[in-house]
Write a structure and sequence with these properties.
alpha+beta; Kinesin; 3-stranded antiparallel sheet; elongated; binds adenosine-5'-triphosphate
């Protein structure tokens, strides 16, 4: 906002007006032919001397500063510069000659020297004159010197009071050295640039507009902060809940407390027992397995307790941070509100004062004009009086009387005009005083604003600190979430393994007892046989008892050993046959191009409820399962490529898909996706948690590919690898790595970062995501590559849309797709392969009533989008399994994105994740039926993307 207060000074202003006034008074005195003429002449002389001295002093001061101004002047123009403050003189010298008084922004040095005078080009203290203001440049364009001289000659002398008043005014106004000698013929104009007072245009200070917008920004930030509050409600549970979990995580009492073993192996590595092993084999397996599991459980226990400690610590930190955060936030909000209110009030008052100042200025101008008019009429009357005086001698006696009367009338009129003039002067003076006091008020307000600004800066600093502590807090929360997830998963798996172990133990015990009974029966049979044989041989019992019995026992032992060996051989053959069958099955699947379907049931979790009976029964062949029917129906049986039990760990699962992943390096487009109801373990399967045993397929796949790429270097293969990560949220594609540079470093979000992406097709008809950020994964240095991958996963986890639902505290509200783009070239053969690995974690299919998403508008919208895209995926599989000509890939972003993998060129594998609870059995049944349809899809043989340049 820029306002300019314009003060016009004509002959009627106190400075010049007073001078004119005194001149007129002198003339009047001389007109009256007073006897004090000579004395007054002396006074006048003294006054002129005094004026000359002042002028000389003023000129000498002004010389340095005004020389450049004078150089620019017309030769017959007298330039008078008034500037008494030394610092401004130098600045005046630098400034071009101007007709106006101009204010400038004070330099920091000026501000330090005279803090009270910064805001504008005029004095802000009530008793200061313009002379005190070091930033004022005054240049008055006057008439030529002749005119001044003639005016000086016209001065007839001053009364003592007028001289005193003139002196006071000259001192008060300060520009007297110049003004006393110049009688302007034109009205000079003084301009005050008022901007600085209102806008505070010092370089260091923000413009009012900018500050307003800053305040608005502050308010918005506050709103944003407040709008973030619900998210906090979705953060991990408080320590009480953690304690509750701890309670749930206790191992079953039957679990062995110590079992030393010389060579412990992972629980997950343990091969499943063959269904028909011999008694000895089973006993041996049982004991070695028991000791192995105990060691694993001990290790897991100690890991859990370490994790628990870390979680407790993070919880404590979190509590402390949130306790210190709340009062700070409240104080800041209070201060912000008070600041905004106070500032608005002050700005309104300043506006009011400025309006009052402007009105006063206008009034002063009007009075000055009136004053000028009065001066003119006094001059005219004086001239008339003079004329009358000169003509009086030649006039006749009758005319003399008239002239006398005329003079009397004139004198009366002059007296009236003079008193009028005096009144006006008084009015002008009081208006000036008003103005000065208004300026003082404005100054006080400005100081108030300054202090408020300081407060505001403090608040900003506080806010910065608060933000920093907030981000620290959220980092701690993320860590806590990761650790909690890892701990929950580890505990669940441990419980499942322990349950498995218990089951195996009791089964083995029962087997043992049965075999003992059998063995005892067999023993008695054999004894009976021996006695029969003995009696048949007809030998003496005393002699033969020892020798024959020994022989028979040896023969029998040999027979038993022979049978055991045969059994072992047959078992081995069975195992080999089984492996061959699976390999052939895989080969057939590959040739037919089937989408492979693996089913994984997750273990029970602490918040699954008290009932721990599973609705799913996994058969020992590792491919079949049955699920309890609804409302007492018969169980439903299903068969898939692989069925994992709840105790199957991440490593076992990855072993089964590693070959599949490997084919991405051979130039195939491979797609793995996890499907299932919310909370069934899709994210656990794909991403997993932490950096240890709970890592999922994505980190393990990248590690394997890095290891394989390194091994292939010996065969002259060089690979490059780029990772990208996106999510499909409410049918929109979003880049989860927008905050990452291609080298893996993070960057702040700016206006140019595009988060929304689109799917396009290239010249070969292959789809690609336009504008997606790709992060290089270092293939040369494996450790660095793994670190880069961890950074990618962390950035994506931060950016992903998750929320708490009734069924999962960290439910994915979007489909996420991790893409690994691989390019390998062989120097020797000139072969180039281009493979891709798409690892897709679908959002959970869910029923609104169970997930509780229906009660929240945003959750409802998300759920509708999720269910719609999953139903589109189902339509695509239906069309593919029916062999329809048209497959509706374009009906959703998900199917459009996966089109290449699902239309025959690539290899696809689907994980169906199931929850074991009885409450989830109907959702599990739906998922299994969906999976059965997918298993029937035949895509045709996958195609390798290879080019041969030699
Ligand atoms: N096989 C498993 N072993 C141990 N814990 C598991 C297993 N599967 C899932 N969990 C645990 O179950 C919880 C829910 O799993 P997860 O978040 O992976 O489900 P989801 O299917 O991805 O759910 P949503 O669709 O809502 O995102 C997690 O705490 C996870 O650690």
């Amino acid at each position: 906002m820029s306002r300019r207060a314009r003060l016009s000074i004509g002959p009627g202003t106190p400075i010049l007006g007073a001078l004119a006034d005194s001149k007129k008074a002198n003339r009047r005195t001389s007109l009256g032919g007073g006897e004090k003429g000579s004395e007054e002449k002396k006074d006048r002389k003294a006054m002129l001397d005094e004026w000359r001295k002042i002028r000389a002093a003023g000129t000498s001061v002004a010389v340095g500063g005004a020389s450049s101004v004078s150089n620019n002047m017309d030769s017959n123009t007298d330039s008078l510069n008034s500037a008494t403050a030394a610092p401004s003189l130098a600045k005046m010298a630098a400034s071009p000659a101007r007709m106006n008084i101009q204010s400038r922004s004070p330099s920091p040095a000026d501000r330090a020297a005279s803090p009270a005078r910064h805001y504008r080009g005029i004095s802000t203290a009530p008793d200061r004159s313009f002379e005190d203001e070091p930033t004022v440049h005054l240049t008055i364009n006057t008439t030529n010197t002749q005119q001044i001289k003639s005016d000086e000659k016209e001065n007839d002398g001053l009364s003592a009071y007028e001289r005193y008043r003139l002196k006071r005014q000259l001192q008060a106004i300060g520009v007297s050295t110049g003004l006393a000698t110049s009688t302007p013929t034109k009205r000079s104009t003084f301009d005050f640039d008022d901007d600085s007072s209102l806008a505070g245009t010092t370089p260091s200070r923000r413009s009012k507009k900018a500050r307003k917008s800053l305040l608005a920004g502050g308010a918005q930030t506050r709103v944003r902060r407040r709008s973030m509050t619900p998210d906090r409600a979705e953060l991990p549970p408080p320590p009480a809940a953690v304690a509750e979990r701890k309670k749930h995580n206790m191992l079953p009492p039957s679990y062995p407390s110590s079992a030393p073993s010389s060579a412990p192996s992972s629980v997950e590595e343990r091969a499943p027992l063959p269904p028909s092993s011999s008694f000895q084999a089973e006993v041996t397996t049982h004991f070695s397995q028991e000791s192995t599991d105990s060691i694993d459980s001990l290790a897991m226990k100690s890991r859990i307790s370490a994790m628990q400690k870390r979680i407790d610590m993070l919880e404590r930190e979190k509590m402390e941070l949130s306790m210190s955060k709340a009062p700070l936030e409240a104080r800041m909000r209070q201060k912000e509100d008070a600041f905004i209110k106070e500032r608005e009030r002050l700005l309104a008052e300043i506006d009011m004062l400025h309006n009052a100042g402007r009105t006063a200025d206008e009034r002063v101008r009007e009075l000055e004009m009136e004053n000028e008019a009065l001066g003119e009429s006094i001059k005219r009357l004086r001239l008339q009086a003079k004329e009358a005086k000169y003509t009086s001698s030649s006039a006749d006696n009758t005319g003399e009387q008239d002239a006398w009367n005329e003079r009397l009338r004139n004198n009366k009129e002059i007296a009236v005009l003079r008193s009028d003039l005096k009144d006006r002067d008084g009015q002008i003076q009081s208006l000036r005083l008003d103005k000065v006091s208004l300026e003082a008020e404005v100054h006080a307000f400005k100081q108030q604003i300054e202090s408020l600004e300081k407060n505001y800066d403090e608040l900003e600093r506080d806010y910065g600190e608060l933000e920093a502590s907030k981000s620290k807090n959220s980092e701690a929360e993320i860590q806590l979430e990761v650790l909690t997830a890892e701990m929950v998963a580890t505990t669940a798996q441990l419980n499942a393994t322990s349950a498995d172990f218990e089951e195996t133990k009791s089964r083995t015990k029962a087997d043992m007892q049965a075999k003992e009974v059998k063995w005892k029966a067999r023993e008695s049979d054999l004894l009976f046989e021996i006695s029969v044989l003995k009696s048949r041989a007809g030998k003496q019992i005393d002699d033969a008892d020892g020798t024959m019995g020994e022989e028979d026992t040896a023969v029998l032992k040999a027979r038993i050993e022979e049978r055991d060996r045969r059994i072992l051989e047959l078992e081995e053959q069975l195992l080999n046959g089984e492996q061959l069958r699976r390999a052939l099955h895989n080969r057939i699947q590959e040739l037919r191009g089937n989408i492979r379907v693996y089913v994984r049931t997750r273990p029970f979790l602490p918040n699954d409820g008290a009932s721990s009976s599973s609705s799913i029964d996994i058969l020992p062949d590792g491919e079949s399962l049955t699920i309890a029917g609804r409302r007492g129906e018969n169980p439903h049986a299903f068969k898939f490529d692989k069925v994992f039990a709840p105790s199957a760990g991440q490593e076992i699962v990855f072993d089964e898909v590693s070959e599949f992943v490997q084919s991405a390096l051979d130039g195939y487009h491979v797609c793995l996706f996890s499907y299932g109801q919310t909370g069934s373990g899709k994210t656990h399967t794909m991403q997993g948690s932490g950096n240890g045993a709970m890592r999922g397929i994505i980190p393990r796949a990248v590690e394997q590919i890095l290891a394989q790429a390194a091994a292939l270097q010996t065969q002259r293969w060089t690979f490059t690898m780029k990772a990208s990560f996106l999510e499909i949220y409410n049918e929109e594609l979003r880049d989860l790595l927008v905050m990452m540079n291609s080298d893996g470093t993070t960057r702040p979000r700016d206006a140019t970062t595009a988060t929304k992406l689109s799917i396009k097709r290239n010249a070969d008809g292959k789809s690609y995501v336009d504008g997606i950020n790709m992060v290089d994964i270092d293939v040369e240095d494996r450790a660095n590559g793994i670190e880069q991958l961890e950074a990618v996963m962390a950035a994506a986890a931060r950016a992903r849309s998750v929320a708490k639902t009734n069924m999962n505290s960290q439910s994915s509200r979007s489909h996420s797709v991790f893409m690994l783009h691989l390019c390998g070239s062989n120097e020797e053969s000139g072969t180039i392969v281009q493979g891709a690995l798409n690892l897709c974690d679908l959002a959970g299919s869910e029923r609104l009533d169970r997930s509780g998403a229906g009660s929240n508008a945003q959750r409802l919208k998300e759920t509708q989008a999720i269910n719609k895209s999953l139903s589109c995926l189902g339509d695509v599989f239906n069309a593919l399994s029916n062999g329809s000509k048209h497959v509706p890939f374009r009906n959703s972003k998900l199917t459009y994105l996966l089109q290449d993998c699902l239309s025959g060129d690539g290899k696809a594998l689907m994980f169906v994740n199931l929850s074991p609870t009885v409450e989830s059995s109907s959702e599990s049944l739906c998922s299994l039926r969906f999976a059965q349809r997918v298993n029937q899809v035949e895509l045709g043989k996958a195609v390798k993307n290879v080019q041969y340049s030699k």
